[in-house]
Amino acid sequence: MEKSSKKILILGGGFGGMYCAKKLECLMAKRKNIDAEIILVSRQNFFVFTPMLPQVVSGMIESNHVVVPLRQVLKNTKFYEAEVASIDVKKRKVNLWVENNNNNHNDDSHGENGSPLSDLTLDYDHLVISLGSDTNFPKSSDFAHVVFTLKNLKDALLLRNHIIDMLERADIESDLDKRRQMLNFVIVGGGLSGVETAAELNAFFHKVVKYYPNLKAKFSELPPHVTIIQSRDRILPELNSKLATDTLQKMNQDGISIILNTKVIDVGKGFVRTVTKEGEQSTIPANTVIWTVGISPNPLTASIACEKMTSGRPVVDSFLHVKGCENVWAVGDSAYIMDEISGEPFPATAQHALREAEVAAENIVNSLEKNNGLRKFKYGRDAQMALIGSKSAIANIAGINLSGFLIWCIWRVVYLKKLPMFKKRLRVALDWIIDIFFDPDLTHLRGLKEDRKFENHTKHIESR
Ligand SMILES: Cc1cc2nc3c(=O)[nH]c(=O)nc-3n(C[C@H](O)[C@H](O)[C@H](O)COP(=O)(O)OP(=O)(O)OC[C@H]3O[C@@H](n4cnc5c(N)ncnc54)[C@H](O)[C@@H]3O)c2cc1C
User: Fold this and answer.
1) What are 347-352's contacts with CB under 8 Å, separation 24+?
2) Is 137-293 a CATH 3.50.50.100 domain?
């Protein structure tokens, strides 16, 4: 076969992007007749294993252990640590912002490290969009800046630090109302990540409260308290209702409050305002609100000239090819893929992103070879599992509902196996062993605060 030098450009280094590059490397090592360059662009030079983020917040796992340096996993991929600024599918070009020391950008924008930003344009023969999703806030709400999110490592570190800050302050606060605000931790959303985060936080408080004498003395009167607010009539919509009901009872027994059929309508300094389905409003005093509901597509995908849902998610056919764009593929949370069997779109989960990435990689290689057909993306559901606290987990495996300590052990084995790099798996396993014998670290890193320079830059560019 005639040799061709093609460029496969992957945007995003998460579950979709990293596993697509990995699969491409593997396929190209086997099919020597393909001459193509794999290029990956991502905001950070590491992959984040999101299912373990709640355990980073609780301090059970060290933050560095749930991230994997992309260059060390993808040895035959050219990597750019850069911000994707725009995608032009007609000209087959992607514009990036990179940080450097020569400011040739036409304004004074700076990257996260304070270095000037400059433009860089990459062209491609095949493009894989795997830019993930953003957190979705209700339209016309203006509380995005006062709530915490849990999407990436930075979110986890900020949240962890804030929680320890609240415990430190509450311990020396004599005003009971202020102390209540500091010790109420409200999680908006009763899906998988909301439930797992609530369970982790609750377990964390039980372990560390003994180090705060004033909280301990008044523990029965005003303990740190975790509340989940869920708009639906049940938690865990990803799992069946029997498991969800059992989980709700178990979490209530552990001291977590779960408020169903209720929406958050406002969040301000020290309070959360909610409304029930019947229209009854109430206010919860809380300095900590963690927003885990709703995902909206990455804003960049909304600007691509292709077939899209009203949400802005590109519509992808069953071969993972973006409809209306030649040689553009989309995987993971960025893509809207219809499950032909259920008639519903595939959910935005890591399990799906990973498998979609592998199918997209195969289809790209087959397209380059031209003599192979494309493979359809089909998904036989893996077991659905969730951690629910007190060394307990729930699962639905082959249609059977299971829960308890054994499932908690299985969760750990399954997720440990999924974590890339042996070194990281070993470190997480050690963290878990250490957690059996020692209490979590309570170091409070003062001065750690959010830095949204890239986002400011994006807004500035949009407004020009
Ligand atoms: C706390 C939490 C727990 C979860 N637990 C589970 C679980 O137990 N099981 C499960 O199946 N799923 C879980 N998920 C969902 C899962 O993480 C996502 O579905 C999955 O990460 C989607 O993969 P992706 O590649 O589409 O996006 P991501 O993994 O989010 O990757 C997107 C990548 O694109 C990069 N990027 C974005 N915009 C730009 C830009 N403009 N320029 C450059 N780079 C950019 C990001 O930095 C990131 O590297 C969880 C999610 C969270 C937040």
Assistant:
1) 347/238, 348/133, 348/295, 349/238, 350/15, 350/50, 350/51, 351/382, 352/379
2) yes
